[in-house]
Queue: 4 jobs
Job 1
Amino acid sequence: MQKRTTILIDGDLLERLDRFAARNGATKTSVLTAAVEAYLEANDTALDLSFLAVGRSDHGRLSLDGRSISRREAGMRPGDDEV
């Protein structure tokens, strides 16, 4: 579902956006959406886990360590996932 918002943007940047969108047969909305998505993808590391593994071990402590590492990688503190 799309929602409308208002942004404040420098006049020169807005003119560049207008020209870019026109040159590429795109709308300003589609250019801004793609730019925001690309920015967030490159900069939002909160959910960017460097690994994920599923398995079984006879060493009970290993699964606890794995959970701790996963929480730390996700930027969570102990207890953040508890209700």
Job 2
Amino acid sequence: MLYYLFQYFDSLGFPGAGVFQYITFRASITAIVSLVVSMIYGKKIIRILQKKQIGETIRDLGLEGQYQKKGTPTMGGLIIIISILVPTILFAQLHNIYIILMLITTLWLGTIGFIDDYIKVFRKNKKGLKGKFKILGQVGLGLIVGLTVYFSNDIVIRENPRFVNTLTPELIEKETQKNIKSTKTTIPFFKDNEFDYAYLVSFLGKYAQPVAWGVFILLIIFIITAVSNGANMTDGLDGLATGTSAIIGSTLGVFAYLSGNLKYADYLNIMYIPFSSELVIFASAFIGATVGFLWYNSFPAQVFMGDTGSLTLGGIIAVFAILVRKELLIPIFCGIFLVESLSVILQVGFFKYTKKRFGTGKRIFLMAPLHHHYQKKGFPEPKIVTRFLIVGVLLAIVSIVTLKIR
């Protein structure tokens, strides 16, 4: 909203109003506002949750410090959602299709997570929203994102972009014509680092490209479901999911800035995605919101995000990665989420297999997800969180480095 207001002021010749046209300026202001909103209004929301006695219920898992968490307010994901939406609406271009999709993602998964927490807290049903309804909601979002990517004329890419210092109207028109609808994405560690999903169905000949869009949409659904559930599983220790998400958000912000800037895309020889630079504003709001929430969520936590926050964070990360065509890098920069999810899958799968084969179920880990395994081994919670975040930073650096190392 303020973006359009200052754009109007700039047209009237107001001194300094043109600064709002710069992505870097708006991104900086967005991060600050998001951080301030989460810290100031976060405290008020925590008080409301405490008055409503919206506290976490604790199951006896035999973990150190477990009962100290009893009664800690949950549903704190509302703080994150508000802190993302407010600055994004204020400083982003609201007509930008990428911003629209990210706002829909935030509200959509925030609603699903809120319903889940509501059932747990107010209905006293520890199972929360049935799994099939969660999956249905995630699939619905995947369809919305996938079909928008397919039908929207504003979601295009440009291969082998060429940066020119003198952009004449004729040259701008010529360069714009190179924008194409494509199922191509970025594949790490390869020199020609663009992979087309049409390659998977190349045997279909002239039907390969239409079918590739179907494959792409199915992949989008899978990624959104997997990453949002991965973030949900990671949310088990104070500050773990929040800190990890902040690191991932910073990585995605770098990707959006580079992919949406013709000069840097040309220099790095990466796919140029017109209009996607506006996602830097959303990434800044995301980072500010998670860092601000960490103020209250760090050990010992004053509030938990609940599914309201964890499902939303995971979904935002998934959709953001898809829009900047970095979904194949998710196993790297979302490595913490991946390992946490795999630990649960392996634990459950191995237990069922050994029980069927030998009559007694055996476990790979002392407890899953993985962070609870280290708790069982006697590691203090802050040390586990800190070490996981260090690994997260290393994975983020590796992800960014892949843009140049091929």
Job 3
Amino acid sequence: MKNIAVSLLISVMFVPIYAQKNQTNLSIGGYAQIDYLHPKNDIANIDLHRMVLYVGYQFNDRVSFETEVEFEHVRELEVEQAFVNYRLGSNLTAKAGLILVPMGLINQTHEPTTFFTVTRPSQDRNIIPSTWTQIGIGLSGNSNKLAIKYQAYIFNGIKSYQDGVPFLRGSDGLRKGRQNGANAFSSQANFSAKINYYGIAGLNIGLAGYFGNTQTTDLNLKASYVGLSMIGLDAVYQKNNWILRGQYVVNNLSNTEAYNNLTGRDVGSKMAGFYLESAYNILPLFNKKASEKLLLFSRYEAYNTQASVSLNTVKNDAYNRTFTTFGLNYFMATGAVFKVEYQVRDNKLPTDVANSFNMGIGVAF
């Protein structure tokens, strides 16, 4: 692990020097997130949540390579993306490698300067298992005439059962089944697609789908996998100093009764959730010439990882959650933000869930 970290550090030092000599071929970037999370009547957690280095290389007019290497919580190293682009035409590109699944607002665009809260929306963690990346191949492109962007991929899929060990559960759905390209395996191919419409000024609407079965190392054990059908709808509207966003995602899972009976787990047969949020840049009210931004935001989020359950599974009301968050984002520069917020948390159990005061720093370049 230390050798890997040293190698990465040397790369970070070397890349800017090399990039100056190859301005048109090599590109670098990255982002970082530091969190201060303080639940009521509890100790605060302070964390360098993630630091990410992006490196891209343009081989020629048609072929390029992109990758992201991420440190989480200082000591965890992960490759988040690593794929080759092959341009088939002016508006069509083939991709192959470790690719982010096109689902929702956050999974493909998740730098801390792109979302208002200190941490990513909880729904994107437990309904969409962000950051969700899989090995696959597919196409992406756009049509300016129709004002649409489209993506379609074949992926290896979420794992549910490996060498007798189950990975799915009721509390966080599919999250523990992410393979992230690390010694991944595939028993059945999955299909993923998304289309975005941008034909109305300031508005972008996305519709995504993900379909297939989870992955198992025991092909003869039908109870070891579940069928997955995920549909996501999202929208962003920006005008003047306003930003409005919304997202709805529903997962329908089949064969969960057999899976839960086999593994003793409590996976829901349906998971669903949504959030609505708004932000307004209040700084022009005090200084019309200000280059910075001060966003006043609020978000209401509700999701349930056991919206429906199979016959022999008992619902857990702790998994039916709501979050109301309000706070400020101060963009001292386009790629640097300071965040402060208060989050009201609740679920359907009679016991209270601790609210939280949070602060954070995010950068992206």
Job 4
Amino acid sequence: MRDTGVVIAGVGLSECGRVDGMTPFALHQQAASRALADAGLSHADVDGFASTGLGVLAPVELAEYLGLRPTWVDSTGVGGSAWEVMLEHAVDAVRAGTAHNVLLVYAATARADLKNRLRTANLQLSSRGPSAFDVPFGHTLIAKYAMVARRHMHEFGTTIEQLANIAVDTRYNAGLNPDAFYRDAITVEDVAAATMVADPFTKLHCCIRSDGGGAVLVTSAERGRDLPSRPVRVLSCASASGTTTMSQWDDLTVSPAAASGALAFRRADITPADVDVCQFYDSFTSTVLLTFEALGFCERGEAGAFLEGGTMRVGGALPTNTDGGGLSACHPGMRGIFLLVEAVRQLREQAGARQVAGAKVACVNGTGGWFSSASTSLLAV
């Protein structure tokens, strides 16, 4: 097992769920302050800053709001996988000595926006460039993920019940997390009976809308040894770009995580068999399905069967999305930062009732756009 010599020394979450009384800026500040306190560092210690998704000048505006004056910044915008990509960039910066303490932070008020009738579910990510060829046909983001599910069902015999099982097991984990937005148990029948959104997806196949934010503090292993919280080693990171238009996707059943995952496991010199806990982007049930296959936890076309029998549950064969994921716990628009926070808490044995016993290695995978990007991070203690 190899590592990068870089660690995650602090993590923090803002208030999550429905937070009507706080702006996105305030949620960023709350999450960042909690991550710094967890790391035992002050704002003055931060010389690297990474964020995206809030305005054109996100890292500049946010750094100003947070009272930071970084000399290294990143605002990579690749959708929900951005924070795994930016973790890779932060690792490179710390190793090169161009930054010493890098803060990654994200927050949004998607739930409050819904209350204020700022609905975005049916909007395109883009209508310019290559995307212009998709827009006239009404290929919304949700519809694209649903078409992925349909193709997998057609090609491999995956059933809608197997896809629904992903939502059921994720809700089971949410029931162990007092901070999850939805905690009541659901069944496969409940998933089938929910409101249809985009065939074959009902509402319970889709991520929730919530408010909330998260932050991660990255530093060197040498520095991390002197800080109060247990440092979590970054074994490796890898990223891959996919497509934005359906006509350019070679195979609708293969996530770009197939490329990022292979690189990450090779760089860390471990295999999926070494992983104890997973945190995968779960914008929709099909996202999770393709991710397991892409990363090599099962063969292509076999994820439906592989995930039967409580595989993803805390206490199951491969606990995944242990906080309840984007399907039940928290999804403010882009969820990549929350995957890293939960992975760190699991490896530090700070997850309470949802703790995975003996967790030493975590696999984190972010997915952006609609399988437009993927980034895989392997973490360990």
